[in-house]
Amino acid sequence: MERKSLDGESRALNAGGFRHPMERPLLGICIVGSVVLFAALLLVAFNSQTVLSFFREESIAAYRDESPEAADLSDEEIIALLPPETTELLARIESLNPVAILLGPLAVLLLTVWAMGREYGKLRANALRITARQFPQVYAMWASITRDLGMKKVPDLYTINGDGVLNAYAACVPGFRSFGALYSDILETCLRNEDWDSLKFILGHEAAHIRLGHVAWWYMLFKFVFTFPPFNYIIGLPLGRAQEYSCDKVGHAFAHDHDCKGLLMLTVGKHLYREIDFDAHMEETVERGGLWATLINLSSGHPILAWRVNAIRKGHNGGLFLRRK
Ligand SMILES: [Zn+2]
């Protein structure tokens, strides 16, 4: 269903249509991987004595095969001679507790509630809530964007002193509420410059994180295991980069700003971003390549800013691992 936005344009955006094509497959790997890992741990925990005796016997037999002089030693004596990594593995299998594993997802969920609750608490304690009475123009824009994205309830929006840092984020306290936050320098810059395009882009990007479920408890639960090395480099971080590309596209659908000033502001700060020679910047950062920049991209949850700008500008799906011209 189409809605009449406050700026007069009639639109209703299907945010899912802006998803980066790799977002769903990577999330699918997270879901399947988490379920398989959980099931495997449970299986081992419920059969720990069987698994333990199997590994003990295998380890002892392997040691006897490799060390003929150990033929006369007892099993216990050989166990004492096994490499530390093997004894550590045996100790870990022995310590697996099925109840603790069953409670694992609940623990992650409670941890998420605690972490997100603290973020929300910081905003409630030290930030300014943007409402119909407080920066009404900004609130109207946020309300319009979130409604256009199909949200029935307008999420809270706050602005908080970032001490010069330019940033914005969205989050959700599971079972409680979703919210967005703008660091004050971003808001101040957009308002002083009457830069509505950048503001729409940033608000659209953050609203998209909420609409696409990136801040939902289940999304974070399934991602949890893949936020740790080495899985984060092949799954967790690329998924984060895909999410950013997805949200950039939604933000751009609201702003229609092909110069991507909302992202250039993050590149050179609040004063210089409107003076950038866009083509020279793209030529330098995208056309001419860059091994080291690619390495930075691989270890980051956000794609390189120039790649994000280029993906919007060219209307393609940005590269998750390698630069895409
Ligand atoms: Zn983002």
Automatic annotation (TrEMBL):
Transmembrane segments: 26-46, 99-117
Annotated compartments: Cell membrane
Keyword flag Transmembrane: yes
Biological process annotations from GO: proteolysis
Pfam families, per the entry: Peptidase_M48
Primary localization: membrane
CDD domains: M48_Ste24p_like (cd07325)
GO molecular function: metal ion binding; metalloendopeptidase activity
Family: Belongs to the peptidase M48 family.
Protein name: M48 family metallopeptidase
